[in-house]
């Protein structure tokens, strides 16, 4: 039982650690920098190059947006959604979608959910539905740690302390179902639950349904998670990409006062079973 069915690929992680050690000790042999080993590591060249590469990977959104475009185009072609558009840079959300019912769904695109960027979003007034979509392209990341960090540590605090309603969360990207991140929902390459979208071949997404109301210690201490049918955009993802009830998670927050602190707990239920729950922990955000 866990916050998300998939887990870190231990074999890949071991290879990453092994390669990182080789890179740290042999980097001075690469390139024509003209420095001996001691000069190379003392110069800051190695650290600077690593930080530059890290920044480039973190900053680029082109691969993520290409992936999202392929998904939304397939959903539109199948009439699971209507028109969709990329929101302008002045908005703190990424995609606006008109649903077949006429409802407006807003998607905010995030990375691996383990950073402060997870908390930077605004639900626009015209949104009937607002969801966050985690696209984590780092195959070496730990999906369980990231999912829990995003849902409990960051989103619950943002929702409760800043009264930001989020209807749901999708954790799903182009690494899902690959050797870098095997998916337990599929049994092999020929599993019929794979769906092809452009050049991607994807297992069903992991869907998280959040409460329809903001938790409040006095008036709304433990609101239940919504049902899949309540959030049309998440139902569209489930229908288009062959997700069933086993792939849908219900997230409940319980909030209370403990002296001067506001405390909350998070519980995630899947398949009618509590997969994980936290103790009451204080919200320290300002």
What's the overall average pLDDT, rounded? 92
Please, how many helices? 6
Q: How far is the N terminus from the C terminus?
A: 33 Å
Order of helical and strand elements? HHHHEEEEHEEEEHEEEE
Indicate the radius of gyration in whole angstroms: 21 Å
Category from helices, strands and their pairing: alpha+beta
Which band does the percent of strand residues land in? 15-25%
* Sheet with the most strands, sense and barrel status: 10 strands, mixed
Stretches where pLDDT is under 50 for at least 5 consecutive residues are none
Helical residue percent band: 25-40%
Global shape: globular
- What's the count of strands? 12
Question: Explain this structure to me?
Answer:
The structure is a single chain. By secondary structure, the chain is of the alpha+beta class. Helix content is 29%, strand content 22%. The chain has six helices and twelve strands. The strands form two sheets. Strands 1, 2, 3, 4, 5, 8, 9, 10, 11 and 12 form a ten-stranded mixed beta sheet that branches. Strands 6-7 form a two-stranded antiparallel ribbon. Helix 5 links the parallel strand 4 and strand 5. The protein starts with 9 loop residues before the first helix and ends with a strand.
